Queue: 2 jobs
Job 1
Amino acid sequence: MAARRRVTYVILGLLALAALLPPHLNGYWVHVLTLFFMMASLAQAWNLIGGYTGYVSFGNVAFFGTGAYACAYTMTEMHWPFWGAFIAAIVVAALFATILGTPILRLRGHYFAIATLSLAIGTQALVQQLPPLGKGSGMTLPLNSDFHFFYWVMLAILGASIVVTMFIARSRFGYALSAIRENEEAAAVLGINAAVAKVGAWTVSAGITAAAGATFAYWTSFIDPPTVFDLNFNVLMIIMAMLGGAASVAGPTIGSFIISAIGEALGAQSVSPWHAVVLGGIIVVIVILLPRGIMPYLAGGPPVWNLQMVRRQLRASRV
Amino acid sequence: MGTALTLYLQVLVNGLLAGGIYAAAALGFSLVWGIMNVINIAHGAFIMLGAYASYWLFVGPMHLDPFLSIPLAMAVMFVLAYATQRLLVNQVVRAPLLTTFLLTFALSIFITNLAQVFWLSDIRSVTTAYSGSSFALGPITVPWIKFWTLAIAALLTLALQTFMTRTKLGRAIRATSMDVDAARLAGVDVARIYALTFGIGGALAGAAGSLASVSYAITPTMGDSFVVRAFIVAVLGGLGNVNGALVGGIVYGIVESFGACGSCFPGVHFLGEGFKDVIALVVLLLIILFRPYGLVGKATA
């Protein structure tokens, strides 16, 4: 356990150092790192519901989009300052998660996955039909070209999401979530109110996701439904969390770093199908060879290159 | 007959006919889910490949009719799906649900984008001599293509049902779905059965792709919308329930058809073509919340 905690502190230290970087970076790297902080925050947020609680949500991107649209609406139609819009986005998405979570979190396994998937697609389809939100043609926000500002905001969201996860993981609430993941009936027998705990986890997850969504909207200054409800965001959150290690405090950030680095190496700026082909191939390999992610290895487990262990684990999951 | 009644009947028939393709798309998906407990997100990509197979056979020198190329598309997709199961899916088939879900999701990204690399995002279509023609059933118009699509979906359902209940292999597949260890003790080669099941699922996706090639635009991403619908239909019909997929497909087609019909409900302004997907998803959510065992299924412990 101590080794895992050390990994978390190292990552928090590195992020604190990253706050000093912007004056020394050119615009391209500021952009790349801001995007990495954003994706890592989304993966951290997903980890609360998907990792700790074991409810594989394909609907978190709905909160990203909700946050982005809440920010856009309050800033353009109601002329709120960014921070007011930022808070509003978090509150709206958290409410959305609480209201929808109550029925949806009764479902389990595949049913929960697909219900959340349809929540994501449904929210996008709904936004596309609403005139105050510009229907399908999107919304334009006030321009702010101080890109260092967005770098710091995204970094702060990421740092906050890791600290929140750290506290949750060590709290009664966190143990309740892990108990639900391992065996929900047994958790209920122990006196855990599973329904409240699950909805709570999803609400916190939605709040962090919406904070990133709101910042994204202001950062790009234009949003439309296909961008902010892009299911690929959701798939990436899951993959990043899984690669780093689901249900670990800072695993998702490690996973995000690796995926972002691979993307950079492949030339993420040129949108080519080859990029997605390679990404798809990498995920296939990760899922088969590292189903529990990298975290167990970093935290003093056997090394990744221990082929015997990989083989044993493969044998166990075959028929 | 009043025009209003004719309208409703036509919308009903349209939905019934549209259900054919949804049933075909859901058949293999439901089979794989029911037998192996694997949600194959790549099923949509398999459908897309089936559609391309029929397209190339149609524009090629043989100029094969898409309905006649169904067996070929099925054969190609069977081999591909069989190999996919043996080499990839089987490695994690006993791992937690998320693992297979993610694996097939990644496979879907892989296949879809590979198709985009080779065939670009160009929209292709198959136009046969009978593409626009239809026959009249009283005041109702029935397009021939949709009619044959539904007929073939029903035929595939019947064939699969017969295979699963009347053949030794089909019984082995069902036994495996009930209890893997007991089936193994009874001499069933479970790995082979899983590969066969996945292969049959792929073949059915190939058939659905051939059927889709005549009435849908053929693009690398065409499979995505079919996966969501296959899921809805599979849940509607009850998991792994072969006949259920056909019933579910038709029910879903009718719901969607009425949902997209703005003039069917005068005074109700929120319906219409744009809301087609919203309605589909609301229906799905309601079903999985209230009847997760399907419309025709029974609740079990």
Note: Chain B is about 70% helix and 5% strand.
Job 2
Amino acid sequence: MLRFIKGNLENIDGVAIYPIISLLIFFIFFVGLFFWVITMKKSHIEEVSNIPLENDQNNQSL
Amino acid sequence: MEVQKFYYDNKIVRNFIYATIVWGVVGMTVGLMVAFMFMFPNYTEGISWLSFGRLRPLHTNAVIFAFVGNAIFAGVYYSTQRLLKARMFSDLLSKINFWGWQLIIVAAAISLPLGYTTSKEYAELEWPIDIAIALVWVVFGANLIGTLIKRRQRHIYVAIWFYLATFVTVAVLHIVNSMELPVSFMKSYSAYAGVQDALVQWWYGHNAVAFFLTTPFLGLMYYFVPKAANRPVYSYRLSIVHFWSLIFIYIWAGPHHLLYTALPDWAQNLGVAFSIMLIAPSWGGMINGLLTLRGAWDKVRTDPVLKFMVVAITGYGMATFEGPMLALKNVNAIAHYTDWIVAHVHVGALAWNGFLTFGMIYWLIPRLFKTKLWSISLANLHFWIGTLGIILYTLPLYVAGFVQASMWKQFNPDGTLVYGNFLETVNQIMPMYWMRAIGGSMFIIGMLILVYNVIMTIKSGSSVTDELAEAPELEKVTKKQTKSEGYHTWLERRPVKFTLYATIAILIGGAVQIIPSLIVDDYIPQISSVKPYTPLELEGRDLYIREGCVGCHSQMIRPFRSEVERYGEYSKAGEYVYDHPFLWGSKRTGPDLHRIGGKYSDNWHFNHFYDPQTTSDGSIMPSYKWFIRDKHDRSNIVGKMEAMVTLGVPYTEEDIANAEASMDEQAAQIEQNLYSDPDFANAYEADKAAAAENGEEFVEMRDREVVSIIAYLQRLGTDIKVKTEE
């Protein structure tokens, strides 16, 4: 029954480039994300993270 | 800047909460009905629309899309308005969203018990309902994005990103997975076949969990937990990392539902790798949620809302640790097809979705009705009975899964299976099924306590349908202001660009996995002896789909010694090329059926459908007496075959022209085979004579449903046994 089994992607020309592209996408994505987050301003973070707590004026004060 | 007065729309939130509660009770009750069928398989005997195979998808759909779905809308409509300081974009769109969604649920609640199903898990609804879902979903998205555009809050809080990602991704998933060719009103065939269909389905199925049960609820967590604890989220930076890495990684993990199946290895391994990575963002989110309570843990002791939320987040943490573990191939080899998976999803559903919803309801209802919660102690009682219910539901099923898998795999020294009879492994875990049903009952009792408490709270308060708020209009952003801002600050102000990037992030994974399977010609190695189903078998297959057999029987033998010994030669990708849709299944409450063809006589199947317990002592399969009684409507066979041709199944014109004759011939042969049992012959002839005597119409056995389903079962998995000249 082994005749039914064969590599599915081996026949594509230049398939070796795909794993390299994948690695690059990932590496760049997460390095970028990390850089993005650590360079955020403290004051901005403070402001944004308090948005949910802002509108406690009306019948929110239970 | 001028301060504007406006009103929050509380009525729509209230309506969605009512719907959440009503459908929650319905969905959980159906679940309990189904749970008791494991002990009493025939308590709805003879009522086709109350059989296990049809109720099981009703339970899953009701809980996922009706209970959790309405809870999502309730939470999103409440928090979005407040986070953006604006009323929803359009009251009309809100109403269409609400009533459209309820209509879809009603359509599901009617059509699923009647057997209208595509059989693809969590996507069972037939094509007209699929179209309605897509339309209502777009209405929801338009309303959400419209509100973003007219917002009075410059920056978009992290919860809103989760809602946006939910909207975009669910739209993509739903459309791609629902590609189907209608053959009549309420009947269609999946555009994909076999392995491709499986890959697309579990890309969808896994990400339905990700983007329907997880991302919107994470958004709710990021809003309601800070609200209830009255302090900001632990780390806003962490929430950014959480969001982007979660949506980027989640979308790739689908193939872990297909480990050791006929799916190509590279796709399986990709799914495993990404599933392991998923621990990081999931636990990042969980920790962020729990640490939001820093310095407020004393409140958790007294506030039932926070109690529910803490258990919900803990459940999320447990389920997202377990998920990657289950995605390891060696663990999956044990857990797949067993009740372990059922336990796993219920940690997610009961704890994460259920408890977060309950916490949200207990927090919202008093605020929507300007009052206090009627009874704190009843809410506490709900909390404890619900928590015990979750434990009593899941722990026995973990044991059941592990015990049964071990029994399936146990060999004698001489190389034969210790438990060759599948039923021995079922009987062993019956006590666990009992405990599960008791745990589930406790969870529902808790739900009923909530209903009572909510009704009493509403009675003691007065409804605020439109809540006054005020906020200044947004200033135009000037160059000077933005000169020193960071990139994310810039992106946060631009919802459209933001949505676009999120879409790209989720499309990459889907594209890499699915596109090769659709464009590479050689993707599925052909097996020349595999031929399309005969017309009668095709009709039988549709009965198999209608009854939801796939809920308990897999058609996928994994390449393990224990499975080959029990069921026969393991399954090959090339055997499924004509299967629109695929029917691999994901749970073995009963044995695998891929090599059932030729294993038993036609009479055995006949008797088994009539009364499973006579052929298989101790079986928990319900009887299918209507198969044996009902005439089979095969009038649309030409339409069905032509649809199959459109999808690439090589029926010739001659095949289609001869369909009726071919069906008659094959059915007559099966009828003749049935006559080999004298008991059958006597009973059948007596029935015939009685009908003639009373002048009643008599349906010949060859025209009844049972003949078609026998034809299909006897064909299953036999094609590769045909000797070819190769």
Note: The beta strands of chain B are 3-9, 180-184, 187-190, 466-472.
